[in-house]
Amino acid sequence: MLNPIQTMATPHTNLNLRLSVMMFFQFFIWGGFFVTMGSYLLEAFKGTEGINSIIGSAYATHNWAGLLAPLFVGLIADRYINAEKVNAFCHLVGAGLLWYAAQLTDPGTFIWVMFAYFMLFMPTLALVNAIAFANIENPDKQFPAIRVWGTIGWIVAGLVVAQTVLGWVDIPLIKMLTGVENAQATNIPLKMCAIMSLIYGLYSFTLPAAPPQAKGQAFSFSKALGLDAIKLMGERNFGIFALCSFLICIPLAFYYARTNDFITAMAFGEKSASFMTIGQVSEVLFMLLVPFFIIRLGVKWMLLVGMLAWTLRYFLFASFPESSALLIMGIALHGICYDFFFVTGQLYVDRKAPKDIRASAQGLFALLTYGAGMLIGNYILGWWGDRIQLDGSSTAGWLQGAFTFWIMPSSIALGVAILFFFTFWEKKDEIKA
């Protein structure tokens, strides 16, 4: 006879496992092609005029979709159809778009197809959270353990594409199936993620139900975009925080779009996707340290340290492009860059916003950062790369252009940090809180 505790624990464990698999698929697909897309585009459209702008525009598609995704989720998943079914549809159609994108030879068409793909993918980042929260009893305890499998999925995807764990252990899965050694410069990551998206789409139909939570309610354009939280900017500190959040995400775009092809040329070759996963490992580590540091440093210094970490990272890339150790250090700074700024920022928004508009305030924060800030950043990095005639497809090209290219985001990040330091004044009661 089963122990009553075991009987009660089984459904709970099974649910957590199903949701963890969901998160793994979700971020494996994103990390599997997104990190190396710049390297692929350099090879696929080699010699094309304005290649740096092509890369910037391709990465900007996910920011455009990020701006529009809240409307899609708010209108459909919140009001009409279960979230897991919308998730399934998005990934099934997305699988076809990724496979199609892998065949394209025209950069303009590729950019439009990726925009269509991200219009389907970006809403699923909110959908998976909605599915999880609709089915777990204790979000504070259960959700972190479920969500971490998303980061693990991103890491595993990078290792599979690189076919190695930092050069120590080989993972020749792609080579065994295709015979290709340097997969990141080919369309294989796109095809791999298309297949995974197809499997994930079918799997999504088996996920626990997440019925519409706002069925029958009127749709609000301003609430969907978080615009009803704009009134918070009337408070001086929050306004400065919002402005600096937007500005600091302009240099952030440089990291996501160009770091992989940079370290490929300068140090790690076809293994670079594996070394890029160091950033996600660092992210998990520093996520655990955020509560410890925020109590001791307060919001202002946490945000400032995050901004200065961006400055340092790009300075290392600019000044020491031939040092493998310092390139790894720059990637490892991702944990501080991301967690100290974004996690602290989300906590600050939650603290400052009245309860009835907290969701909108978080939406506004996302809109300013991953939406508008990185969108402008992707176009700037493309323009800047073409202006300095950066050849990102070769070691010689990066050696010649590394300092000029990377000193731009380093200078922007430093300027934002200085602006934030002199204008944001944390009150004593806020520090104590």
Structure explained in plain terms:
By secondary structure, the chain is mainly alpha-helical. It has 2 domains: 13-209, MFS general substrate transporter like domains (Growth Hormone, Chain: A, Up-down Bundle); 227-433, MFS general substrate transporter like domains (Growth Hormone, Chain: A), CATH 1.20.1250. 78% of the residues lie in helices and 1% in strands. It has helices spanning 4-34, 37-44, 51-77, 83-101, 107-135, 139-162, 173-178, 188-204, 221-224, 236-268, 272-276, 278-319, 324-332, 334-352, 358-387, 395-423, 428-432, and strands spanning 164-165, 169-170. Strand 1 and strand 2 form a beta hairpin. Helix 12 packs across helix 13 (324-332). It is globular and about 55 Å long. The termini are far apart.
Question: Gist?
Answer:
This protein is mainly alpha-helical and 433 residues long.
Given as residue ranges, the uncertain stretches (5+ residues, pLDDT < 50) are: 4-9
In angstroms, what is the radius of gyration? 22 Å
| Full CATH superfamily name of the largest domain | MFS general substrate transporter like domains
Number of domains: 2
Beta-strand proportion: under 5%
Overall mean confidence score, pLDDT: 88
Write down the CATH class of the largest domain: Mainly Alpha
CATH architecture of the largest domain: Up-down Bundle
Report the principal-axis shape: globular
How many helices in DSSP terms? 17
CATH-defined topology of the largest domain? Growth Hormone, Chain: A
